[in-house]
Amino acid sequence: MNYSAVIFDMDGVIFDSERAVLKCWIDVAKEHGIENIEEQYYKCVGTNTSKNKEIFTRAYGEDFDFERFYKAASILFHSRYDGGNLPIKQGVFEILDFLKSQGKTIALASSTRKETVTKELQWAGLLDYFDLLVCGDMIKNSKPAPDIFLLACEKLGITTDEAYVIEDSYNGIRAAHNASIRSIMVPDMLKPDAEMEEKAEVILSSLLDVIEYLK
């Protein structure tokens, strides 16, 4: 295991947030009579707001008021989960402590905006573990484009073969693959398919299993 840095995704890897977001989207969609919201949600997992808008426009047409929907869902999400109420995934503290003990650099590459990422990590007592945050509002092209992971490596001053990416989403694994970075998939809401088995170095069931793998 020759690596110097591990780059984590946040939603679905650090926080059990994807189910929480989906519930908010469903509640807002019901209120506004929007159909097939779950189908669109799964397409959006691992991407940023700009990509979400593209997906919604393709599904519902140019006249769909994405900003109104997204704002309502965001307000609902923050009202429910701000202040440290967002559930943390199993094994998060253990793997971060393990990597620190091994002298590894720890980065986070999330499609979420930096302001939100920073607050959520701070509320959970996790912010100080990370040496670098690269967020969705810092890049032009969202996952599955490789931009966010390439920028993380650039800022860390490492080559792509010195890092591991830990991801739960198809788009995240695709982005790591497109960046030529080894990836570990820890599935959350989306079960791995043949493409994920091909593009991820390994698929493991939890972050605790990742610790054993990296040992």
Summary, kept brief:
With 215 residues, the protein is of the alpha/beta class. 48% of the residues lie in helices and 12% in strands.
Word description of this protein:
The structure is a single chain. By secondary structure, this protein is α/β, with parallel strands linked by helices. It folds into 2 domains: 5-16 and 88-214, 3-Layer(aba) Sandwich (Rossmann fold); 18-81. 48% of the residues lie in helices and 12% in strands. The chain has 10 helices and 6 strands; from the N terminus they run βαααααβαβαβαβαβα. The protein has helices at 18-32, 37-44, 49-60, 66-81, 92-101, 114-123, 147-156, 170-178, 194-199, 207-214, and strands spanning 5-8, 105-110, 132-135, 163-167, 182-185, 202-203. It has a 6-stranded parallel β-sheet, with helices on both faces. Helix 9 links the parallel strand 5 (182-185) and strand 6. Helix 1 (18-32) crosses helix 4 (66-81) and helix 5 (92-101) packs parallel to helix 10. The chain is globular, with a radius of gyration of 17 Å. The protein starts with a strand and ends with a helix. The mean pLDDT is 96.
